[in-house]
Amino acid sequence: MLVCPLDYRYGREEMKSVLSKENKTQKLLDVEAALARAHAEVGNIPEEAAEVISENANIDKVDWREVERVEKEETKHDIMALVRVLGRYCDEAEKYIHLGATSNDIIDTGMALQLKEAIQVIKEDLRDLRSTLGERAKEHRDTVMIGRTHGQHAVPMTFGLKLAAYTSEIDRHIERVEQAEERITVGKMSGAVGTGAALGENAEEIQRSVMDDLGLGIEKATGQIVGRDRYAELISIVASISASLQKFATEIRNLQRPELMEAAEAFDTEKQVGSSTMAHKKNPILAENISGLARTLRGLVQPTFENMILWHERDLSNSSSERLTLSHSLVLIDDILAKSEKLFKNVEVFPDNMRENIEMSDGLIMGEAVMMHLADKGMSRQDAHEIIRESAMLSRAEERHLKEVLKEREDVMSVTTEEELDEVFKPEEYVGRAGEIVDEIVD
Fold this sequence. Notes:
This protein folds into three domains: 81 residues, Fumarase/aspartase (N-terminal domain) (Fumarase C, Chain B, domain 1); 270 residues, Fumarase C, Chain A, domain 2; 61 residues, Ribonucleotide Reductase Protein R1, domain 1, CATH 1.10.40. The protein contains 20 helices and six strands. α3 packs across α7, α7 runs antiparallel to α8 and α8 packs parallel to α20. A hairpin with a 2-residue loop joins β1 and β2.
């Protein structure tokens, strides 16, 4: 019986495979094998024993289903079940498995290996999205549209600038992931409360050898577990990414409203159904899906921070929670990133509608441009602002174009000409450095 939607509806296979039971089991076995090799290096166990353990520490022999059966029916302990099943294949070398380690030496170090793989997937996702956003920004470098603040018409901008801002935001997320990766992908091999006592006089060397072998950083000082501030940093970053993606998707949803229709999610007109009853509908379901999953992901931040707060050197209250928070957060962010890339790769843009919406403002969005023009002509900026404010209110009240109202004012026409005013009211002439910004971001 399938219960979790990640099993049948959401998530992609690549990230699911990273966080799968099979991969988790293999990573735990990799750590046990690395520990055996480290012991052999310092002379604690025979090299032949380390070789035997390493050869058999793979899921082709140690089936995760058998490990779960042993845990359920015999050990009531996950790592001891793993050790017991692995030991079946190691003959005399069995007695050297897990030597000097505590469970979380294996669990947390194995998780670090999984997180390392997951972070590579996330970075690739982010780079794909950054590339797509950059390409679309370049495509619409000079596509003029209305900029909006407070949901109201502001001043002209370009759709390319909007997408360039998104591109830059994703670029910052890439930096965050790359900068945090080294802090997140660390393991420990220091025993029950972090002293390394059970590993003997070569404890430090053994820990360093294991982590070098596995390509991980070292948790130098800790209790029984790797510091959960590391997990909190990771989930905070992916939650922040999800918020950006929801923001981007929400913009497409807003621009797709029929009264705007400046951009819209792609729709398969040959097959896709918008509504079970309203057959005319073309709903932005992908953007809405992104929004909903992003909300859910951010809901996992709170328990992740709570998992940092444990009794003394550790308790087990974090364990069950982390089985949900880590896997679900990472599967969801991968899914949302992939959907966002698809959304913007195929988003439809309607420049004619953008122009029509500009015209419907009756010139009001050019008020700032006129104010700056009058200031350039020598008028006080404050006086020019009041002139535009008064004229805008009259324009709205009388449903007349702002330019016509301004042409009737002697204080305006005494410092400018009709020809100059006509030029100032061209939206494409008042987008500032928008094109240059797009070029800089894309380059």
